[in-house]
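Researcher: Let's try something more involved. This one mixes different molecule types, so please make sure each is placed in the same coordinate frame as the others.
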Amino acid sequence: MEREVLLEVKDLDVSFGEKKKRYDAVKKVNFKIYKGETFGLVGESGSGKTTIGRAIMRIIPTAGGEILYKGEKINGKISKELDHKVIREIQMIFQDPQASLNERAKVDYIISEGLMNFEKNLSEEERLKRVDHALSEVGLLPEFASRFPHEFSGGQRQRIGIARALIMNPEFIIADEPISALDVSVRAQVLNLLSDMQKKHQITYLFIAHDLSVMRFITDRIAVIHKGEIVEMAETEELVTNPIHPYTRALLSAIPMPDPRHERSKKLLVYDPDMHDYKNSPPSWKELAPEHYVLANDKEAQEWVK
Amino acid sequence: MAEKMLTVENLEIKFDLRGKKLNAIRGISLDLYKGEILAIVGESGSGKSVFTKSFMGLLEQNGKVTDGTIMYYGCDDGVPVELTSLKKEKEWYKIRGHEIAMIMQDPMTSLNPLKTIGAQIMEAVLLHQHLNRAEAKAKTLEYLKDVGIQDPERRFEQYPHEFSGGMRQRVVIAIAIACNPQILICDEPTTALDVTIQAQILDLIKELRHKYKLSVILITHDLGVVANIADRVAVMYAGDIVEIGTSEDIFYDPRHPYTWALLSSLPQIGVKGENLFSIPGTPPNLFTEVKGDAFAPRNPKALKIDFIERPPYFEVSPTHKARTWLLDPRAPKVDPPEVVEKIRNGGLI
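Model: All components are placed in one shared frame. Result:
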C-alpha cells in the first residue's frame, strides 16, 4: 500500500558560519514523513536534530537540499501564499514551557495570537469561543484564559503550548523535546494528550527527543542522528529490537531500566566514531532489513548483519 | 549492620512564605551507612532537595528546622555532631565540603567561567588538605585522572567553556572529591546530560565510591537511574519518606501505592498504542496540614482510614518499611499493579 507522503526532506544541508568558520550542522539528511504517522528523530545534544526541526519551520535557512511539504518546496524563497499556508499548517511545540510562553501576556492572548494574524476579521466572540475550546481540549479550565503563565505548573504550561498549536488546526506538528523538562508523572499525561490529539485530528508528528525509551512508546518510525548524519532509520519496534548501527546500539544500552538486576549485569556499549574505516570506502545508505536503513560501507554492512 | 554515618530523626522543616507556613519536610527519619549509595526519589516539590540541603546548612533564609535532629558521626575525632544545632557559618565550614560535599545538577552554573578548572580544583585541595602548592597541583592532576579526564596536564590550564557538559560534570565531581568528604550528595547529577554520558557519570560515581570510601546520597526523579546505581532507595512524597528499602525491595516488591504509581508511569514500561499510566490529580498543598496519607486523594484504591489517620511505618522485612495502611493486618488485600510482576520477571527488555 502506497502511503501519502506529507513531508519529504531531500539531501538537506544546514551550516552555520562562513568560510573557515563554517560548521556543517546537518549533512545530506534524507527522510520522508507519511501522513498520520509519528516520526521520531533521536540524537544527543549537538546532533542537529533541533536544527532540522527549525529548518522545516523556516526559522533557519538551509544551505542545500530540498524540503517538500505536500510535494511543494518550502525551503529557500517561496511565494507569500505558500508561506502563509506553511505557517498555518505546520506548528511547533517547544521543550521549555517556562521560556516559550510570553510572561507578560495572558493565556488568552498567547493561545490566540497566531489565529489573530490569520483571521484579521475574527470577531471577539468567536475568538474567545475558540480559545475556550482549545483550552478544554488540552484539559484546562476556560477561566485559565485570563491568567498569566507564571500561575501555572510546568505540565499546565506545556498544555498551554499545545493549545496554542492546536488552535491553528495544524496538519503537522513538530514537537521538540516536549516532555524533557517535565516530571515523570506529568510526562505521561502530556504524552497521552499528544497521542489523543493525533487520533482525534489526524495530526502528523515529528517528534524530536534524546530519549529512546520515550520514543519507543510514542513513535511509528525512528531515525537516529549522530553529528548531523542519520545513521539508522526503521520502524520503531524493528529499530529497538534489532539495532544495527553501533551508535544506535550504544544509545539503547545506555537507557536505564527500572530493574536493578539487569542494570548491575548490563554491559555499557560505547560508540567511538573512529571505529569506521571510511577512508577508502565511504559509507552509503543501505537497506539491511526490510524498511530498515543503515549508514554503512560494504564491509560493515556484511559484518553487522551477521 | 554497617557503621552509621548520619542519622536523621523526626526532621521537620518549615518555610515562611508571605506570612504563611509551608510544611516542606514532615517528620523524616533516616539512617545513612558507610559506603552505601542511597537514592532519594520523588517528583519536583516533594522536598528531596530541601531535605539534603539541611545536612549542609544550605536552607534558604526563610527555611527553618522546627523539630528533629541530624546526627553526623564521621568527624575525625569520633565525636558525633548534631547538625541542626550549628548556627554560625564558621561552624558549618567544618562540615561543608570537608565532611559533606555536594554536586549540583547543572555543571555550567557550579563552575566559575573565569578561572581555569585546574585552579578551581586546586582551591578545594588547598582549603581542605594540608599541602603546599606543588603537592596540591600533583594531587589535582591525580583527581583529574581519577574522574576520567584524559591528558590532565593540558586540561588543567583550560577554562570551563572548553569542556563538554559531561566533562564539566566530571570536573565538578573532582572538586567535590578534592574536599576529601565522607558523604557525597549528588543532586540530580545527570539530568542535564545525554543518556550515554549519563551512564558514564553513574559508572564514575560507583567507582569513586569504592576508591574514596564515600557514602553517597543520590537525588533523582528517574527510577531507571536509581536501579542502576542505588543500594537502598527512599521514595519521597509531599515532604515524607513513604517507603524505604534496598533496590530489590523497591523494584521487585514495592508496597506503597505511590511507589506503584511511580513505577507504572515510567515510559520504559509503556505499551505502544495504549495510553501510558498517569497519576491523577496533583500533589497536596503543603501550606495546609496534611491529614491522613498524603497520597490518598490521588489513589483510587485508598482506604477510608487513609483520609483520617496518618499511617505509621510497617516493617515488611528488616531492610524494608513503608508508610501505608495496606500493610496493617486488618487491611483488605490490594494487589500491586501488573507492572510490578513484569519488572520482577525481567519482562521489560
